[in-house]
Recover the amino acids of this structure.
């Protein structure tokens, strides 16, 4: 009952507020219009009596009557006709310089003296004017005009008047009309206000405004308490709504995103594509500073129409990925140590065999070469390469190279996580394995002491770079254009397949293979893959 009463109280306050607001607006607008209308009517009346006084003062009969010194019946009839047909004029008075009345609408006053004193200014040469005088029946609103002869000498004056009571009556009539208009408009406004509230209740599905306010506050609290960021984007690409987690995830601080362009805060958005085909783009990895975000972009449609906007759902995967990396790193390290332990036992058996057969020098050489792969380098490799197949391959190649006195090391900064792979793990094994095997064979054939191979694997979201550099003899410039052709090799028969396979894999994913070489200094192969090129290549194949 309290909630229902509060709703009614809220609606009553809103209703009363709108009624008062409409009343004030009506009073201000109608009051201003009323004042303008009364002023306009007063100006029109002043203009009418002034024009009438001017017209009468210019009549030839009036001049002749004053020169003759007695009233003229013809002029009297003419003036009575003017009084009768010109609406709004109550009285016309004609007097000479001495105040002797030659004509007045009230005939019984003709021949009397006009001595009120209001005519003094007009008789002394003043311009025509309007003033209020005290008449027998009450105040009069009068216009005075001088009557001059041909020489410009003032012979008398004309006074055209209207009763002030008549002007007041006209103003009251106008006010009554406006009061009626005000009451009618106020009644109409009240009815429309009631209709508006009924329409509003219908549009709000029966909810009261206070209910919607409460729902909005609760939903706002719920949305802002979510761990996920929520961003709503309009058809023009501008952000319409963003909760607080979204502001923290995208802007790095609690700052307003509303009104900004989505491209400005999320450059990798597929906004245009989603609006065009209406297909959601899910599970996008986006690195924003130190944070790794998982972003889903979903089209917002109504009744199956074209998308009118896009909804973004953001999740902070930084901590989850860190824990996952630690777990996979520990697991990868365990697998690597097991393999390393197995390999170490094998090496002990080889050393034991050399010792039992009396081949002491070979045992020494084998031990020295084995030191080229330290436990630290194995741990570093396992920590950097989190894809077990690739990690096992590289450590195996390290040990294989060490048997020939070749040091194989991983470039600082190398990293390979499963989430950043742009190819299948087996493809990485093919590329890296063939590059390393080629480099090992090259250094074996070059008979170079202390040969070195530097492997770089740099995998970031959307970009993978693999490099393999050796200190061998380099490649003959005449062979550079043909080294990726199957069967072509500088090592003789039964070779020429490794680089061909590397090129095949790179082409499959739209990657680029570059070679830097200098005779006598060594060679460096670099494979570059991007997510965009890979997606376009696979789409073209399909």
């Amino acid at each position: 009952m309290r909630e229902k009463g509060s709703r009614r109280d809220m609606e009553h306050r809103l209703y009363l507020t709108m009624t008062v607001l409409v009343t004030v607006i009506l009073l201000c607008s109608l009051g201003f219009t009323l004042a303008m209308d009364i002023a306009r009517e007063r100006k029109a009346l002043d203009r009418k009596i002034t024009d009438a006084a001017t017209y009468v003062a210019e009549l030839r009969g009036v001049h002749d009557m004053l020169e003759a010194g007695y009233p003229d019946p013809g002029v009297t009839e003419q003036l009575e006709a003017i009084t009768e047909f010109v609406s709004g004029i109550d009285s016309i008075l004609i007097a000479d310089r001495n105040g002797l009345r030659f004509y007045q609408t009230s005939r019984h006053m003709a021949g009397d003296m006009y001595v009120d004193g209001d005519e003094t200014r007009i008789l002394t040469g003043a311009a025509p004017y309007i003033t209020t005088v005290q008449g027998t029946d009450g105040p009069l609103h009068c216009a005075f005009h001088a009557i001059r002869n041909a020489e410009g000498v003032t012979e008398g004056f004309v006074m055209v008047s209207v009763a002030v009571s008549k002007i007041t009556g006209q103003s009251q009539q106008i006010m009554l009309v406006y009061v009626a208009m005000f009451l009618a408009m106020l009644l109409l406004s009240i009815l429309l206000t009631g209709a508006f509230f009924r329409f509003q209740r219908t549009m709000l599905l029966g909810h009261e405004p206070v209910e919607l306010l409460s729902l909005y506050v609760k939903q706002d609290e719920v949305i802002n308490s979510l761990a996920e960021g929520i961003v709503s984007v309009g058809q023009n690409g501008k952000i319409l709504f963003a909760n607080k987690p979204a502001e923290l995830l995208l802007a790095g601080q609690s700052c307003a995103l509303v009104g900004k362009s989505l491209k400005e805060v999320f450059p990798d958005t597929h906004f245009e594509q989603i609006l065009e085909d209406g297909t959601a783009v899910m599970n996008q990895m986006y690195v924003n500073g130190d944070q790794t975000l998982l972003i889903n972009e979903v089209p917002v449609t109504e009744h199956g129409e074209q998308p009118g906007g896009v909804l973004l759902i953001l999740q902070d995967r930084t901590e989850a990925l860190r824990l996952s990396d630690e777990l996979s790193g520990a697991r990868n390290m365990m697998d690597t140590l097991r393999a390393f332990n197995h390999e170490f036992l094998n090496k002990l058996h080889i050393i034991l065999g050399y010792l039992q057969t009396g081949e002491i020098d070979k045992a020494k050489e084998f031990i020295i070469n084995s030191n080229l792969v330290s436990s630290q380098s194995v741990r570093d490799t396992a920590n950097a390469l989190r894809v077990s197949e690739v990690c096992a391959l590289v450590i195996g190649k390290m040990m294989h190279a060490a048997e020939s006195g070749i040091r194989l090391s991983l470039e600082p900064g190398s990293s390979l996580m499963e989430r950043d792979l742009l190819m299948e793990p087996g493809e990485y094994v093919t590329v890296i394995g063939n590059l390393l095997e080629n480099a090992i064979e090259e250094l074996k054939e070059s008979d170079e002491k202390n040969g070195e191979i530097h492997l770089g694997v740099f995998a970031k979201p959307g970009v993978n770079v693999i490099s393999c550099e050796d200190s061998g003899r380099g490649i003959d410039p005449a062979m550079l254009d043909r080294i990726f052709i199957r069967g072509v090799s500088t090592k003789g028969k039964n070779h020429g397949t490794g680089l061909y396979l590397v090129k095949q894999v790179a082409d499959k994913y739209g990657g680029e293979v570059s070679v830097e070489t200098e005779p006598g200094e060594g060679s460096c192969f670099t494979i570059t893959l991007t997510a965009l090129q890979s997606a376009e290549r696979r789409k073209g194949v399909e």
Observations:
- The CA atoms of residues 3 and 211 lie 9 Å apart.
- The mean pLDDT is 79.
- The domain at 226-316 is CATH 3.30.450.20 (Beta-Lactamase).
- The radius of gyration is 53 Å.
